[in-house]
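pinned: reference chain
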Amino acid sequence: MARREWLGRAASAAAAALLVAAAVTAPGGCGKRGAAASTVTINGHTWHVELAVNERQRYRGLAGRTALAPDSGMLFIFPHPEVLEFCMRGCEIPLDIAFIGADAQVVEIRHMAVEPDRFGRETYSSQVPAQYALEVAEGALSAAGAKVGDRVAFSPDIAAYAKAAPPG
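pinned: its structure tokens
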């Protein structure tokens, strides 16, 4: 009887630990983390962005989306500047991407096409170190007149994420 009781308690403890782990590691809400408060402005045009601040969020990105409003996007924040590479794995809509240096200047702009098989074989590189990448709807960057060298303004919460990011 004691062994059965012990096994029951152990199973309950394991289940509780799994629930806690799932709650801690799962993305919040419906992938809309920070959508209302976080903004990125280039050339006077402001996008309301979701933030991708950890490995899981950055890997998922905008995959699976079937639409993206013209004034919305996703900002990928990396712990430190490095040459960044993105692909269109699982993406259903064409995107523009602006790579942004640690000094808040656009260092590269690329147009990313949907791949027929959605495997993400083609990569899009920042060419030079960048700490941020802004993905927006296709044509949104050119409509805003964004170009390499432009200054970028971030809402205060974004700067806090970048400063808090652990090295490595």
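why pinned: The longest strand covers residues 72-87. The helical segments are 2-25, 55-60, 140-143, 156-164.
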